[in-house]
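Budget justification aside, the reviewers requested a transparent look at the raw inputs and outputs of the sequence design task funded under Objective 1. We therefore reproduce one unedited record. The lines immediately below are the structure tokens for a 707-residue chain.
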């Protein structure tokens, strides 16, 4: 696992306050310009800001403590001395009071920027603090009403403000790629490889338009031959699908000559860059996918249409690449305490409410192929001037000391953290890419109770405060099985079904980390399910729910459902298996049927009513085996020139028979079916019931509006 000091806040603001006292991180972007000053300044300078707000919140969602990080990338038009960096309280076009100052000032904390005008300024502010200007109520209001706050940078030339920008609430997506020379077009003869991750932030203005973005690159590389003085000459996001070469759309700035990065003599190392994007860039709104704005939006929506690529002086066209992939996210919320150390640390009252988000890519069999871990640690109560010399995940059960398996990069040397007040936040993201690291991450997602996060100091080098990542996982208990779409308790072979209970999985996991798949796995984070003794393909696992496909091979009648995970084996829960058990999907749990118009694939809603003569597509499950036969867990690929047809079905809408055009297994899915029907004449109303009948068995009834 290669280390990096890249920062990553990974939450949506809507999650604040939903739990007991806990830590959360929110983030904002800002595009700073002289023209935003009041009065406006005429200058070509600009800057991009990322503001990270790390808070500890009580049950009511009120912050009780926090830290705020400023990460400012400047592009001044000339040499300048920065004399202030603050957040002010005012809307655009209005000057407001300073509410969150940094220690940058006109005397001993001023910052000189040379004639290039470029500098990255990183500062952290503690809340509350001895400065009466900073209040927790301000932090809460800033989270709730960011449009009323702006970040401002001051200089000796413009002491009242050189450039400023309103805070833009940001959303994120975390993408990864397994970079290989074999993926280049054409492939290149190199033994090296890499794991690349990109944290992408997208900030919206008051109208909802994307007005800024930042891409945080973190690439681990290994296996390269550096004996010939090889250097990286590029690291980019390109716009193109797999097997094709595309143009550069997001550029880290690595280049030839002085801008190149020598490959580490060991052949292994890390590339870590932040790229800020805004309407000030010439390529921001370039027509087509090549514009930064379009690329950012495409990476959120369809990441596989872009690839991450590294280039060297020998292979200028690319040395290793992979399509961008979504990741599966897990999260551990813990509080590190001195009493958890082995032996406990007497007299130390320091604590650290901590978040540990994990992001993984999975192999086809469900095992972890690579991943990333975020350390988001809000330490409190250390002595002023305390030095933090380590922050790691160790592998061992409670009450036992274990070896380090995932280091954060904080160490006793250049990467130590010296606290001014004894309070603060450490935010580190590391890729998990080595064989030993990946093996540990596989074990972690199966049994997180056997891992702990530990913070070390000069006073307590063996560990000052720690916490297991999760409580011990109890024996799984199944409380019920139902069709995924409704409360029907009889299921059919091939049906998508939900298992409800407790201790079903140590962590939530789904299909996000798999990329393109042709079949579902039967083991996810150490969780497996059998129905009638046959292993069931898994769609998703959560502590209280597992979504499966009932195997086609299961015999009819009463059949036991058994869940197995790191906590043990559940007692069996019997479910009735019948040849057919149709169930129309309720997509929101409020009776909204998963029925769309065939003409434009729009969902039927009160604002988009069906009408007589419309062809509708009904999505459901429980229609059993098809002709030709579908395979358990395999995504349906229709035969050439044909479809996987179900047994005959009938449909009524508002009690009237609706002509059926076809009833098939939906291509590209496992356990999903679709029926095409025509809305009969004479049916209208706000809530017309839709019922599917197969083999004499009626489905649940869900209503749609018909005009």
């Amino acid at each position: 696992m290669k280390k990096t000091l890249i920062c990553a806040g990974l939450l949506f603001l809507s999650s604040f306050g939903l739990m007991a006292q806990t830590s959360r991180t929110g983030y904002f972007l800002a595009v700073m310009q002289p023209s935003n000053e009041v009065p406006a300044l005429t200058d070509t300078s600009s800057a991009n800001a990322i503001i990270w707000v790390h808070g500890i919140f009580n049950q009511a969602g009120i912050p009780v403590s926090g830290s705020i990080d400023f990460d400012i990338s400047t592009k001044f038009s000339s040499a300048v001395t920065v004399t202030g960096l603050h957040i002010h309280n005012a809307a655009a076009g209005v000057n407001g009071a300073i509410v969150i100052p940094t220690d940058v000032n006109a005397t001993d904390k001023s910052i000189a920027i040379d004639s290039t005008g470029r500098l990255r300024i990183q500062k952290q502010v503690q809340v509350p603090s001895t400065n009466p200007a900073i209040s927790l109520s301000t932090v809460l209001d800033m989270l709730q009403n960011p449009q009323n706050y702006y970040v401002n940078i001051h200089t000796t030339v413009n002491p009242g403000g050189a450039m400023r920008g309103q805070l833009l609430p940001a959303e994120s997506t975390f993408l990864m790629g397994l970079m290989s020379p074999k993926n280049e077009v054409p492939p290149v003869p190199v033994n090296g490889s890499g794991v690349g991750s990109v944290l992408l932030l997208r900030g919206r203005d008051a109208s909802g338009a994307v007005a800024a973005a930042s891409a945080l690159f973190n690439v681990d590389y290994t296996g390269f031959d550096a004996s010939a003085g090889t250097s990286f000459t590029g690291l980019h996001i390109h716009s193109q699908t797999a097997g094709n070469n595309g143009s550069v759309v997001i550029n880290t700035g690595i280049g030839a000559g002085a801008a190149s990065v020598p490959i580490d003599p060991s052949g292994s190392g890390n590339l870590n860059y932040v790229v800020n994007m805004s309407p000030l860039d010439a390529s921001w709104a370039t027509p087509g996918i090549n514009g930064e704005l379009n690329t950012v939006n495409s990476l959120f929506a369809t990441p596989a249409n872009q690839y991450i690529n590294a280039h060297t002086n020998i292979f200028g066209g690319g040395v290793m690449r992979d399509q961008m992939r979504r990741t599966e996210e897990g999260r551990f919320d813990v509080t590190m305490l001195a009493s958890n150390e082995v032996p406990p640390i007497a007299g130390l009252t320091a604590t650290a409410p901590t978040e540990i988000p994990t992001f993984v890519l999975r192999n086809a069999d469900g095992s972890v192929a690579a991943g990333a871990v975020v350390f988001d640690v809000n330490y409190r109560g250390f002595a002023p001037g305390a030095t933090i010399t380590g922050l790691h995940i160790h592998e061992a059960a409670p009450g036992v000391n274990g070896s380090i398996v995932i280091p954060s990069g904080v160490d006793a040397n250049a990467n130590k953290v010296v606290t001014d007040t004894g309070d603060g936040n450490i935010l580190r993201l590391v890729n998990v890419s080595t064989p030993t690291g990946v093996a540990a991450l596989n074990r972690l997602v199966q049994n997180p109770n056997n891992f702990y996060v530990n913070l070390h100091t000069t006073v307590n080098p063996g560990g000052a405060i720690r916490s297991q990542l999760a409580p011990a996982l109890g024996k799984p208990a199944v409380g019920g099985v139902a069709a995924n779409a409704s409360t029907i308790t009889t299921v059919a072979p091939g049906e998508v079904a939900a298992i409800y209970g407790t201790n079903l999985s140590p962590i939530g996991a789904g299909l996000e980390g798999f990329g393109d798949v042709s079949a579902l796995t039967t083991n996810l984070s150490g969780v497996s399910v059998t129905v009638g003794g046959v292993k069931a393909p898994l769609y998703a696992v959560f502590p209280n729910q597992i979504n499966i496909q009932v195997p086609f091979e299961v015999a009819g009648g009463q059949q036991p459902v058994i869940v197995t995970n790191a906590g043990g084996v559940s007692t069996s829960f019997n479910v009735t298996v019948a040849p057919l058990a149709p169930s129309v999907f309720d997509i929101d749990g409020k009776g909204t049927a998963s029925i769309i118009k065939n003409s434009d694939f729009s969902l039927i809603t009160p604002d988009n009513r069906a009408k007589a003569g419309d062809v509708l597509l009904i999505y459901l499950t429980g229609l059993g085996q098809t002709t030709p036969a579908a395979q358990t867990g395999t995504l349906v690929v229709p035969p050439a020139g044909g479809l996987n047809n179900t047994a005959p079905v009938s449909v009524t809408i508002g009690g009237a028979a609706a002509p059926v055009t076809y009833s098939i297994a939906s291509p590209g899915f496992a356990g999903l079916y679709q029926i095409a029907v025509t809305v009969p004449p004479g049916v209208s109303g706000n809530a017309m019931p839709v019922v599917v009948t197969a083999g004499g068995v009626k489905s649940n009834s869900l209503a749609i509006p018909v005009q």
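Residues 198 and 217 are 5 Å apart (CA to CA). The longest strand covers residues 63-75. Computational costs for records of this kind are itemized in the attached budget.
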